[in-house]
Write a structure and sequence with these properties.
Blueprint: H1 15-67, H2 88-92, E1 94-95, E2 103-104, E3 127-130, E4 148-151
Antiparallel strand pairs: 1-2, 3-4
C-alpha cells in the first residue's frame, strides 16, 4: 500500500487502447499487403525478362553459328532455316563440325516461365514457341523449329501488356 489509504491500481491497457491499437495495425496491414503482392509480381516480371533474354540470345547465337558454318547445314538439330528444332538442343549441344567430337552449348539449363500456370510442367514445356515460318499472330507452333519463345500466361503485366506478347 502507498502512503495514502487507497489501494494500488495495477497499471495496464484499457480495452479502448487495445481496440485502437488493433485498428491501427489492421490499417497498416491493409496497406502493406497490396504492396507486397506488387513486389512479388514485379520480381517475377524481372525473372521473365531475364529468361526471355537468355533464351533468345542463345537462339540467335545458334542461328549465327549455323550461318557461319560452325554448325553443319545437314545437322539434324537445326532446321532448314538454321534454328534449333527444340529448346533442349541449346542445352544438350550440337557437334561443332570438327573431327574432335566436341559440342557447342548455348544454355546451361532451360529457364522456367515464372508465370506458367502448371508448376509441374518441365521447364521447356512451360513456354510457347514460334517457328521461323509461323506468322507473328499464329496461336499454334508449327513444330519445325524454335525461332522465338514467349510466356504462355494469359495474364496482364503491371504495365497492362500481356506476358504472351513480350
Amino acid at each position: 500500500m502507498s502512503l495514502s489509504n487507497k489501494p494500488d491500481i495495477s497499471s495496464g491497457f484499457t480495452l479502448i487502447e487495445l481496440l485502437v491499437t488493433l485498428v491501427i495495425l489492421s490499417i497498416l496491414a491493409s496497406v502493406a499487403l497490396p504492396y507486397a503482392e506488387l513486389t512479388v509480381k514485379r520480381n517475377k516480371e524481372l525473372e521473365l525478362r531475364q529468361a526471355l533474354r537468355d533464351v533468345r540470345t542463345a537462339i540467335d547465337e545458334f542461328h549465327n553459328d549455323w550461318k557461319d558454318g560452325k554448325i553443319s547445314h545437314s545437322n539434324a538439330y537445326a532446321s532448314e532455316d538454321g534454328y534449333p528444332v527444340a529448346l533442349s538442343v541449346l542445352v544438350n549441344g550440337v557437334d561443332n563440325g570438327k573431327a574432335d567430337g566436341k559440342k557447342r552449348y548455348y544454355l546451361r539449363a532451360i529457364p522456367r516461365d515464372p508465370f506458367s500456370s502448371d508448376p509441374q510442367r518441365e521447364s521447356s514445356e512451360s513456354w510457347s514457341f514460334r517457328g521461323y515460318q509461323d506468322p507473328p499472330d499464329r496461336l499454334h507452333w508449327n513444330g519445325k523449329d524454335v525461332y522465338d519463345i514467349h510466356s504462355s500466361s494469359p495474364d496482364a503485366a503491371i504495365d497492362g501488356t500481356y506476358y504472351r506478347e513480350w
